[in-house]
Amino acid sequence: MEGNHLNQNIHIIHESGEDYLEKILMLQEQNNAPVRSIDLANAFNFSRPAISKAIKILSKNGFITVKQGYLCLTELGLKRANEIYHRHRVLKDFFIKIGVSESIAEHDACKIEHDLHDSTFQAISELLKKIN
Fold first, then answer.
1. Which one is the CATH code of 15-80: 3.20.20.140, 1.10.10.10, 3.40.50.1760, 3.30.9.10?
2. What is the C-alpha separation between 55 and 70, in angstroms, rounded?
3. Which of 3, 39, 77, 119 is most buried per CB count within 10 Å?
4. So where are the chain's domains?
């Protein structure tokens, strides 16, 4: 794949994995504290076994480590989390600027932040800069 996915010779991550990385980063920033798997389960309203499975996959692929019960983003995980979170914020801001309600803008940003081609995202980002 080309575009916003990680280089093929590094690690592949799916949309759900990106969501987990983004949420870990968001929870760290919101709470100014390390994130536990139960925090992630509560944020997504998922069961602990579902979260546990995702954590194992993310850990195996080098995106997170688990230390004393806390989820720690690796350098690779932090990079990807920041990329997707940045996309989310830019898209949400753009949608709000063009008249979409905040709740719909939030929902739509979550849906397309993963699939939008880099050039399309850059065009939106540049347009948003001009609008501001």
1. 1.10.10.10
2. 11
3. 77
4. 15-80, 87-131
